Amino acid sequence: MSRKEFRDLAPPERAHETIDSLDLGGGVERVPLREARGRVLAERIDAEIDVPGFDRASMDGYAVRARDTFGADEADPAVLDLVGAVHAGAEPDVVVEGGTAAEISTGAVLPEGADAVVMVERTDEADGNVEIRTSLAPGDHVMFAGADVAAGERALGPGTRLTPREIGLLSALGVDEVPVRDRPRVGIVSTGDELVRPGGALHSERGQIYDVNSYTIATAVEDAGGEAALYPHVGDDYEEMGRVMVEAAEECDLVLSSGSTSASAVDVIYRVIEERGELLLHGVAVKPGKPMLIGRLEESAYVGLPGYPVSALTIFRTFVAPAIRRAAGLPEPRTATVEAHMADRERYEGGRKRLMPVGLVETGPPADGGEVEADDTGSTTLAYPVDKGSGATTSLVEADGIVEVDADTAYLDAGEHVSVRLFSPDVRPPTVFGVGEDDPALSALLDRIEHPRYLGIGSREGLRRLGRGVPDFAVVSGPVEREVETVDLGGWTREWGLVVPEGNPENVDDLTDLVDRDLRFVNRTTDSGLRTTFSNALDSLAEECGSTRTELAQSIDGFDLAVRAHESPARKVAAGRADAGLGLRATAERLDLGFVSMGEEWVSVLGNPDRVEKDGIEQLRAAIDEEAFEGLSGYRR
Q1: Which of 147, 146, 157 minimizes the C-alpha distance to 181?
Q2: Structural contact between residues 284 and 407, judged by C-beta atoms closer than 8 angstroms
Q3: Which of 31-40, 372-381, 474-483, 512-521 has the lowest mean pLDDT?
């Protein structure tokens, strides 16, 4: 099969124009009022009745003729004969004539002859009479028929989004069914032989991964006002892909696919569109999201999203969601933008407009009175890039918004002003932002803090970022050199060693077994503090043996097989892919594995000196003091 090259990459403006040219439906349907919340009226609704439909009392008291109270006051009350009572929901059986009054409840029909209501607090009742100690004017404390909405009056116009307030008004008018804009039906097809729907059996050894995009994009479609329809994911077989895509096109206004849009020889979806419809655009000059398709398939509109989740969602939000909202009659949401400053220097040489995901952190003014300006509260907002690559799903939740970077921008400098377009108006920065070593005890501590954020990037990288002033705190373990100014927020020890299969079938006793025997080992990455502790133990062993760490490391099968997280080596041991892995006692016991102790290492929580007054830091201190991790095996203060 020949490789499909990208055509000239279209500028983002052309991609918007091309999607705008597609027909995404937008008809009219009638729905029960109870199901109309969030829908958009397609036609004007006029009142068919008066609301209220009768003159009614607006408070408890007495229905009177106003002229019978003229001149009445506390010293000289008007005395009227009490002729009966009128209650809400009942038809009056009394008539108020000159010199008389009728007791009345809030919401009750004003009886014939009455034109005002005196509140009960300004009256006294005795011997069949009522004394009125105030003067009234006609209409006092009365809501006349049609005072709220009059029959024939315009109640709601087309384009109105139906919230609980509008539903209340329509209920008062007796409307039980409303004409609304039809929601575009959007068919979603994920492609790729490797995909498995969440909940299905996953075979990682075959390279299978869970299908992230189907549910992610379906939810985004519904947020934009569309109706999502999930279709079975398809592999890279041309015939099967064409069958499912055409089925979706016959049933939907818009078909969204994800994956199979790049220039790879196995990415064949563009062929399906070209041969069964019309391909209008192939490739957009944005990052992430270059491999984007726009076209028509059968009678339906079509957009092909990239396969990587971050790219797919970013392209959807930027280009597709506005078109769905327009078809559903929904206005663009109020743009939520935060003005911030770059927390660190960020280089970019992509040659395309970059939609850079960033996280936000709030901080006080710099201790040295630097260039970053604080707001009136003494706080600044910093933006830091969250870019693990388009395939990293954690970027979906670790970022707060997008910074648009022009194609000709070589770098953004630390402290440079940027505008952050938030993913939604309710996004808010975390109360505390930390980075560094991943640790089970830390996870327990963070559970006690309101809205924290933590990135497990290892002790070395965590300390480096703390030194550059980005996070509020860093967690480091082992003998990591601390060349930056920090504030000690507390810490604990954790027992480390070798995680082995249950029962320790290879009878591993210590590190010499890794060096002298043919055992498969799994290490941690060099940024991990636990890796440093392990390397130092090898140094001690090398000194005893008259060797070097490098020589011992070369004798260990798998020394360079490094994995990132604290459970990763243990899980490879549990899967039978290693005889031993670098890990913690707590992890081994949680996974029902064996453990060979090598000692303890200290874990320190280090604070940014400029931010020790933040509420989130105070919550973190309190959590450490409370020893929230009690019960974790191998941990102590």
Answers
A1: 157
A2: no
A3: 372-381
Read off φ and ψ for residue 271, nearest 5 degrees. -70, -40
Look-up: residue for tokens 């919550």? Answer: 619
Residue-by-residue DSSP string for 186-219: EEEEEB-TTEE-TTS---GGGT-EE--HHHHHHH
As a whole number of angstroms, the distance between CA 241 and CA 225 comes to: 27
- Per the CB < 8 A criterion, the answer to whether 21 and 294 are in contact is no
In sequence order, the 6+-apart residues with CB closer than 8 A to the CB of 628 are 441, 444, 445, 447, 448
How many CA within 13 A on the CB side of residue 119?
6
- pLDDT mean over 215-237: 90
Cis peptide before 52 (omega within 30 of 0): yes
- Pull the structure tokens for residue 334: 């109020």
CA distance 293 to 282: 5
What three-state secondary structure class fits 530? Answer: helix
Burial class (CB in 10 A: 0-12, 13-18, 19+), 253: buried
- Cβ 598 vs Cβ 508: under 8 Å: no
**Residue 287 has which token pair?**
């990052």
Instruction: Write out pLDDT tens, residues 449-481.
Output: 989 999 999 999 999 999 999 999 999 998 767
Tallying the residues shown for the chain, one arrives at 637
| Burial profile 601-635: b = 16 or more Cβ within 10 angstroms, e = fewer | bebbbbbbebbeebebbebbbebbeebbbeebebb
Q: Is the distance from CB of 54 to CB of 110 less than 8 angstroms?
A: yes
Phi, psi of 58 (to 5 degrees): -100, 5
Phi, psi dihedrals of residue 255, rounded to the nearest 5°: -110, 130
Q: DSSP state, 518?
A: -
Token pair belonging to 390: 């388009």
Q: How far apart are CA 126 and CA 128, in angstroms?
A: 6
Contact indicator for 72, 135 with CB cutoff of 8 Å: yes
CA distance 46 to 81: 43
Express each pLDDT in 499-544 by its tens digit.
999 999 999 999 999 999 999 999 999 999 999 999 999 999 999 9
Q: What is the DSSP string of 19-46?
A: HHTS-----EEEEEGGG-TT-BBSS-EE
The per-residue pLDDT for 386 is 85
Which SS3 state, helix, strand or coil, does residue 282 take?
strand
The residue to which tokens 């124009």 are assigned: 17
**For the CA atoms of the chain, what is the radius of gyration?**
35
